[in-house]
Amino acid sequence: MKQTIINAIENRNLLEFSYDGHHRVVEPHTFGVSTKGNDSLSAYQVEGTSDQGIVPDWKLFTVTKIMGLKKSDKTFSGTRPGYTKGDSRMSKIYAEL
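The structure corresponding to this sequence follows.
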């Protein structure tokens, strides 16, 4: 799963998965270890649903809760407003745009 996320960031592919019972389609921006010690993905959700009901929006996903991860052939053009390189929510970064 880690390599799929890293490849998606490097190639700007959308990712699709289920998280907390919701289908998500996201633009992955940063993947690393959160300050809470969990492998985490910071991504801009562009399709699907969420508990908050706000889509599109920024989300931080705990990787162990991601189910059925698929890298899409669809790509995105680049960073979204609100993106910060070197995400302060991460203690270690594996990959980022």
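The mean pLDDT is 96.
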